[in-house]
Amino acid sequence: MVTIMKDYVSWRAQALITKKPVKRGDVLLTSRPFCTLLDSNRVGSYCEHCLCSSRKDRVLTRCADCGRAWYCSHRCQELGQQLHRRECIVFHKKPDYQPKDFARFLARLIWRLRSPSPPSADTREIRRDPEQMKYLDSLMPDLNVLVGSRYMPSRDFLLIIYGKVLVNSFCLLDDRLTPIGMSLYLAASIIDHACTANAFVSFLGNKLVVRSLVNWPDLDWDRVHISYLDVMNTRKERQEFLRRHYYFTCDCRLCRDDEQDLLTSTIACGFPTCGAPIYIDETADGGIDPCEACGFKNHPDDLRQDYRYIAKLTKQKLAQLDEQDPDLEVWRDLVEAQEDILHPLNVLKAKSLDALMTATLNMRGWHSAWGLARRNHNAIRHYYGPKHPTYGLFLMKLGKIELNNMASSLALEHLKEAEEILEAGLGSNHPLVYLELAWLMIQASEETKVEIQRSLIYGERHTPPYIHALSATNTPSPITNAHTHVSGASVQVSNRTHVNASTSTPAPANIHTPDSTRTNANTCTHTHNSTRISIPAPDNTHTPDSTRTSTPTTANTHAHNSIHTSTPSPANTHTHHPTHTSTAASTSSPARSSPRSYVRSNASALTRPVHAHVHVYAHVPVPARAHAVVQEQHHLHVPVLAQANVREHARIRNHVQDSVRSLPHSPVHAISRGRS
Questions:
Q1: Bridge-based pairing state of the strands 497-500 and 542-543
Q2: How far apart are CA 268 and CA 282, in angstroms?
Q3: Backbone torsion region of residue 658, taken as left when φ is above 0, otherwise alpha when ψ lies between -120 and 50, otherwise beta
Q4: Which of 19, 477, 499, 535 is the most buried (most CB within 10 A)?
Q5: Dihedral, CA atoms, 465, 467, 470, 474, nearest 10 degrees?
Q6: pLDDT mean for each 10 residues of the chain (676 residues)
Q7: In sequence order, which residues have a C-beta less than 8 Å from that of residue 494 and are 6 or more positions away?
Q8: C-alpha span between 131 and 53 (Å, rounded)
Q9: How far apart are the C-alpha atoms of 190 and 173, rounded to whole Å?
Q10: Do 444 and 412 touch, CB atoms closer than 8 A?
Q11: Helix (H/G/I), strand (E/B), else coil: 6
Q12: Nearest to 323 by CA among 448, 177, 168, 218
């Protein structure tokens, strides 16, 4: 066994075994599989030997004898015959035979381990486990067909093989971290478990790679640990899982942390300004302890009963969860029921929000998924830690969601953080890093450049498109909004100084405003260091010098260092210099009515004062650099100024949407061992 393991340990791992410093992200061990098997529902999508996906421009060809196995090349077909040759004969004779996957894996392993001296192992734990013994008995009919009664090993030998597979097998993952099968790696089987792992397992094809998550002054294999399970569980659930599948009890630092375990089963404090976590024991009776942060204790009498009901229902739904395609309505209703009871760091709520976000993404609900991701961000970081690859996968998913919500700067920030984490955990040569993550970062970078160019033109405080989405979710926005009711004549200065006149003076016809004046009938105007004067005016307003005239049906108007004179929708307005003519939305006009038809239908209202809510957005002046850019581009606007970048951005967006169809969801399979 020692000789076999040396063959499967890479030269780099052999060098690291010696007492040398190891940095975070260094490869500790690489190993090729001793025995591997694709899931039956993945056959035809991956090569049976190298596990190459059919998505990578490779045409898979099936085995000519049985038609069950698929390979990407003749070389892989030759190398795969060592495991496939025996079962190929059976499938050729019985084309409709469908054995269990675990029976096929055991049959392959039996043929690999045929020797006169079977390995020794302690099988007492398995013999005392009635569930495992019953499952082994259910595999015997398939084993008799695949192996044959002549070559079937003894019962003791079969129990030894069965026990080693249960304890030492790994769940195979493709380049998108999707479970596709199971495999046995002899070298990696020496690594022990800890809930607070300091090493991480990833796959490149069928090659297993173990990387360090911490810095080591010198490598000690007795202290290298990987996680066999998902750490986002209560201590009781983790211990039960390990006893049931691996027959040992974990005593790591996380399992000894009582305070951390209490946080997994908490409710939110009922005091409006507190919200601190309060531990609640599902098995206990009586009232709930007061909040340690604020001392609040007036909890509803039925709160413990409600918590038990919600916790029981959530555990039932989690047991039935399809991690790739959760039911949107089920998880949306469940999260709504948890809202006023469970604390955000409660493990049941964190898992429910993650399932709901996946279901929302499957329906392309990018904006709703963004809100769910922000709500669950702290919980994911709390349970996995700021440097764990699972948290990096969450940041990568969050970055993609933000890109689809036009929040390019936020997306770029999160994708850069994800890049540093995933390069250490998965390696820079992992397809998820150098393909999917790289393209997302290119897209975010290009969109951020376009956003910067817009800010140079419109001012340093130009509003990105996603700010309005953040405002809808009570997120602070860099825009200053001033809602003012205008009655009669009023003067508004955009530097947060408001001077109101109490009188309303009707203006005569043919008003002449020669000094850089803009005449508007807007109800929503963006101003830059400017003053707005609103007076009622009749038709035929005459503005000869550098004037922009607006008539009702548009939303926003921009001006620089000018006076805004707003009048109630004058008709036949004339301008003497090249100006921009826009229309401003009116509450009484149809959404798509023309200015002329609007004037005709509202002629009787033109002599009345304007009563509207005016939104003033305070901006800074356009920088000198922006004016220089405009002059170099012959006063072109932003869409023309950034035309090349927009075309490049569109090409990148189309490529990303075609290539990045789905991001990894479940962190369980990425770090777990055992049957898939």
A1: unpaired
A2: 15
A3: alpha
A4: 535
A5: -150
A6: 43 55 93 93 91 78 91 92 91 92 93 65 82 92 90 88 91 90 92 94 94 91 92 94 92 93 92 90 84 89 91 94 91 93 95 95 94 96 95 96 93 96 94 92 93 81 55 40 34 35 39 40 39 40 40 39 40 40 36 35 35 34 36 36 47 51 45 45
A7: 527, 528, 529, 530, 531, 532, 616, 618, 619
A8: 35
A9: 20
A10: yes
A11: helix
A12: 177
The tokens describing 616, both together, are 């003033």
3-state secondary structure 266-303: EEECCCCCCCCEEECCCCCCCCCCCCCCCCCCCCCCCH
- Model pLDDT for residues 207-239, shown as the tens digit of each residue: 999 999 999 988 888 899 999 999 999 999 999
Q: In the chain, count of helices (H) and strands (E)?
A: 22, 24
> DSSP secondary structure string, 76-137?
HHHHHHHHHHHHHHHHHH-TT----HHHHHHHHHHHHT--SSPPP---HHHHT-HHHHHHHH
Which residues, other chains included, contact 458 with Cβ-Cβ below 8 Å and sequence gap of 6+?
558, 619, 622, 638
Q: Token pair of 471, please? A: 């405002």
pLDDT digits (tens, 9 = 90+) for 330-387: 999 999 999 989 999 999 999 999 999 999 999 999 999 999 999 999 999 999 999 9
* The one-letter amino acid at 610: V
Which tokens sit at 103?
A: 């029976």
Cα separation, 36 vs 108, in Å, equals 8
From CA 432, how far away is CA 416, in angstroms rounded? 14
Domains with residue ranges and CATH for the chain: 2-226 (no CATH), 265-384 (1.25.40.10), 475-621 (no CATH)
Tell me which residue has tokens 């996380």: 254
What does DSSP assign to residue 217?
S
- Predicted confidence at residue 119, as pLDDT, reads 58
Residue with token string 């090493």: 199
